[in-house]
Amino acid sequence: MAKILISGGTGLVGTQLTKLLLEKEHSVNILTRTPDASNEYKWDISKQTIDVDAFKDVDYIIHLAGAGIADERWSDKRKKVIIDSRVDSANLLFNKVKELNLPLKGFISASGSGYYGAITSAKIFEENDAAGNDFLGEVCEKWEAAAFQFESINIPVSILRTGIVLSKTGGALEKMKTPVIAALGSGKQYMPWIHLDDLCQMYIHQIEENVNGVFNAVAPEHHTSTTFSKELAKSVSRPYVGINVPSFILKLAFGDMAKILLEGSRLASDKIRKHKFSFQFPELAEALDNLFKK
């Protein structure tokens, strides 16, 4: 069994991932600004400090830490926070691992499906496609570059470019479950998505199957804002309205951040499946039923 150190371990993904890792008899340490439990250790990214006891006997690091992309409007200050929270935290981990000369078996980092840019196109993006020429593309490119530093000290790197994570509580679905459900903007933009449990199992798969490289962490079934909204309305027994939320309202409400709601392309999930990963929830209807009809 492996020992794993998780940054961002108290968030939506980290909490469920910790639970599933412990169920499989792995052991988990968590980095947090406010440690409470016996397996939690303090770090301060702004001061570039970290409790070195967190690294004791650790085999893998899973790097989930980062300010929420959709938590606030994208002012210049907020954009800097979004990038720095990912890059500076990865740099801190890298410097400490290098300083302690730790023989890690792997460094596994989150990234975003926005790597390819906030655009709507006919293309289905694969892992070897270039980064998008916009803010999301910049965030993910810098995030991944920080992770790939570990290869310079002979530590294998794995990166999961994650779509919209579907969870019963918290996350995107919490905001989408409005009393009346409608598509956004044109409704034609794609929404790459993944069930929380599938995402967590993907991280575990990278460890247990010793898989490295860059992977799209998205379900194989593609949905537009329109088809996604219809499935969601059906699953939560709320009315679907065929009049889409106008783009200008979203732009007024969210500013530049509205791009992540109004644009989106399909991502291929073939590569991870070729590495023997099997989705428990490959289709949206069954993923939503699992979350809301248990």
Structural class: alpha/beta
| First-last Cα distance | 31 Å
Strand order of the largest sheet: 4-3-2-1-5-6-8-11
Number of helices: 10
Average residue-wise pLDDT: 95
Q: Say how many strands there are.
A: 12
The rough form would be described as globular
- Percentage of residues assigned to helices: 25-40%
Explain this structure to me?
The chain has 294 residues and is of the alpha/beta class. It has ten helices and twelve strands. The chain is globular, with a radius of gyration of 19 Å. The two termini are 31 Å apart.
Key structural traits:
294 residues, alpha/beta, eight-stranded mixed beta sheet, two-stranded parallel ribbon
Write the layout of secondary structure elements.
Elements: E1 3-7, H1 12-23, E2 27-32, E3 40-44, E4 49-50, E5 60-63, H2 76-100, E6 106-112, E7 124-125, H3 135-148, E8 157-162, E9 164-166, H4 171-176, E10 193-195, H5 196-208, E11 213-217, H6 225-235, H7 247-254, H8 259-262, E12 266-267, H9 270-274, H10 284-292
Parallel strand pairs: 1-2, 1-5, 2-3, 5-6, 6-8, 7-12, 8-11, 9-10
Antiparallel strand pairs: 3-4
Helix pairs in contact: 1-5, 2-3, 6-10
Short description:
This protein is α/β, with parallel strands linked by helices. It contains 10 helices and 12 strands.
